[in-house]
Amino acid sequence: MQYAVDHAVDMAFWLTLEDARLFYVNSTGAKRMGYTQEEMVGMQISQIDPEFPAERWPEFADRLRSGEPLVFESTHKTRDGQRYPVEITAQYVEFGDEKQVIAFARDITDRKRDQEELANMSMEASLLYRSTRIAEEASTFNDTLQGVVKIFCEIIGWPVGHVYLISDDDETLLEPTDIWHLDDPESYTKFHEVTQRTTFKIGEGLPGRILESTKPAWIVNVQTDPNFPRNQKATSIEVKGAFGFPIKVQGKVFAVCEFFALEEMESNPHFLSLAGPVGDQIGRIFERKLAQQEVASQNAIIKTIMENMNQGILMVDRDMNIVTSNPGFDEILGIDADWRDRFSTYREIVTYFYEEIVGAENAAEIIERAVDIVRSGNTMVHEQEIQDGRFMEMRQTKLDDGGVVRTYTDTTDRKQAEEILRESEERLLAMLDGSPVGVRIVRDSDSIIIFANARMEELFHLSKEDFLGTKTGDYHVDLNNQEAIVARFRKEGFVRDAEVQMKRPDGGTFWALLSIAPFEYEGEPARLVWFYEITKLKETEEKLLEARSELESRVEERTQELRREIVERQNAEEKLRNAEKMQALGTLAGGIAHNFNNALVPIIALSGIVQRKIPKENPNHEMLGKIAEGAERAQDLVAQIMSFSRQDESKLENVDATALV
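The chain above was modelled as a monomer; its predicted structure follows.
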């Protein structure tokens, strides 16, 4: 028995009734409290249970004496000061004269946590349920947000709630709304006023922080928080503690809900954890409502389209029942609209059509085939002649629920147009085949030749059969030039008169002017290409170029000769002009010299005569000599000028003047 108690799962304590001192503790209790069993003996219960101070014990002891066991919750404090909740079962016992209390304590930390979690879950469930219900029942988004703010304030017990919305013009800006919950509006006048005139950019204030992080946020005291602009816009505001959370629609923040308390509030993880699911749930409901609105809008558009489209529409479910149809179905099939009152299955309407409207001889066979096609649910397209040359194309698309949608198009005009086009193409190909210009048709997707006329056979020395299926690049000497021409065609939509050098399989080459135009051949994009041979023209052009080059060479030579002759003539003319100038100058100099010489003759003669008459000792004799010498030198200068003016060679020599006379 002692062993069982000592090793029991629960903690066991024996203590005296009078002074609540322990005289036995089992090993489980001592270990949980952080003591040895010996250390705990003699301790008072108040040392391990703060909720039982010594002054409270007498009252508790009186209750125990009644004989009824007491079960209650309390708190134990371990040796290192940790506290944990316990459930205690206490019983009063007597052993002879000894009055004792036997108490068993069970650690209920896990149970308390479970209870707290359960309470939290209950709160969360209540919030989600009530918020969801409001969101579902509210006619507008603002009504939904108003209800959510009110419920949140009621459940968490905070007096103020408000909603900011993303601006319609700027997804980084939050604007205040009239969505408020105030348990006493007159008590929060300043805060209400400053909020109504404050917007927030991303990262600013509580709403801006939530917009930036897209997660809930908490502020212990907004009056001391450095990033709470509303606190700076008023002398004092009435709130302190704050937290908020976002509501996201399609992954983007649509609104921010914020809540405020009158006192400082330490961060409460539970409140923050509640906010996330509520915001997500409201966001999903908003998304669903938006989707419903869009679906309703799309349905209205689809209905309008169906009612006004030229095609007939018939929807059939998996059981072959007709779900819906449009007026175009009645018009194309040529049946009255009252068929809907008589027929409800696909078999009925198809039977009526082929038996009554078309009057087909093999109606039963056609009807069964049509029913089998719809029953298979396969996506398909088929066309058939229905009556009097009328054609109808029927397309069938399978739906996810097993039904099908069938579209009916009257293709009579198209068939006639296709026939006219086919005949036109045949005439065109016949004309192209007889053209004196080479023509080929090239498939645009892979540059494969799919048509060549008779002239192409002559140009390339190939039969049409050999042409078909080959690539255009096989016949171009310069592939880079060919690629450039194709690129130009794709950019401009046509090519006109591009010079190309083509090659034949036998190695021969020729020059051609190439033109390209877009074309459709047998229902697919193609290129229509013309070839006009210019080989002889190119040869003539080359000869002309050679002749021109030779002529230019001769002209250049003659030009050089003329330039030399001109230079020589210019030199001769220059010499002539100089000679004429010198002749004029000589004539002028000769005239001047002759007159000057006449002036010198009396000076020389008279100065000599006077000198001879004056004695040598006379000072004037020598001066007259110098006059005569100066005059003689001037006479020599005149003689030189006279010699220059004659422009011929001259020489000085002594002559006998008497003999000359």
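The two ends are 194 Å apart (CA to CA).
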